[in-house]
Design goal:
single chain, 240 residues, alpha/beta, Rossmann fold, four-stranded parallel beta sheet, disordered N terminus, disordered C terminus
């Protein structure tokens, strides 16, 4: 089945499906539930359901297939890699439904900057610190470009260039970049976490030996604001 995407603005869906990346870390699962709960509180007229992409269930196809329509699926990813561009649309298309909306990914978006800078401040960031924006990474160059966009926006907030680094796929990796900044004369290095929830990737940031490692964005009010906005616009999936 061929899938054609058509933009639909200002929709008021009866059901919103929050599609989060699965994790075996209970704290990461808790963040997914916190986001869904916060969205329910903000949009009491809608039914909000939670599903997971990879690792955990229920999956996207299962939840969308059984949801009352119309439906909007929100991929809660901070960049548009394989999960956003292929997995989620593929799982939705497999349901055969024509009343499903897939929003843009959660990030990158300027709305998330408040969450990013708040987490840095909470961790002890100082204005003189060198800053690294650390993301999970992707084999998709478009997803890596998304991270660089977020770093550019963060540079404007912290008043100096923010470099990007990756935990898994992509280069440079976080620890070598932190070490290189120290070798270049930086007294302190702060790592901003371009991660939504705790888990393996965030734990790896602790091994980079930065002076500051910010917490993931989590259920920050700015993240919830972004979810609310995404709940109202997207691309309608229709079979053709």
């Amino acid at each position: 089945m061929k899938v054609v995407l058509r933009t639909r603005e200002g929709c008021a869906p009866r059901t919103i499906v929050v599609a989060a990346h699965g994790t075996r870390d209970p704290a990461g699962v808790a963040v997914a539930h916190q986001l869904a709960d916060a969205l329910r509180a903000r949009l009491p007229a809608c039914v909000v359901l939670l599903c997971f992409v990879d690792v955990l269930g229920p999956g996207v196809r299962e939840v969308v297939a059984s949801a009352s329509g119309p439906v909007t699926v929100i991929p809660t990813f901070l960049s548009s890699g394989y999960h956003v561009r292929a997995d989620v649309p593929g799982e939705v298309a497999a349901t055969g439904r024509s009343d499903v909306t897939i929003s843009s990914a959660l990030g990158p978006h300027p709305q998330l900057l408040a969450a990013l800078t708040d987490r840095l401040r909470e961790a002890g960031w100082r204005r003189s610190d060198a800053v690294v924006l650390a993301a999970a990474g992707s084999s998709d160059p478009r997803a890596l470009a998304d991270v660089r966009i977020a770093a550019c926006w963060l540079s404007g907030q912290v008043g100096r260039r923010v470099r990007t680094a990756f935990v898994a796929t992509g280069s440079p990796k976080v620890a070598p970049l932190v070490a290189g900044l120290r070798a270049a004369g930086e007294c302190r290095v702060a790592v901003a976490s371009w991660l939504l929830a705790p888990g393996l990737f965030h734990r790896k940031l602790a091994t980079a030996q930065a002076d500051v490692v910010a917490a993931p964005l989590g259920a920050h009010p700015a993240v919830v604001d972004r979810l609310v906005k995404l709940a109202g616009a997207g691309a309608v999936l229709r079979s053709a």
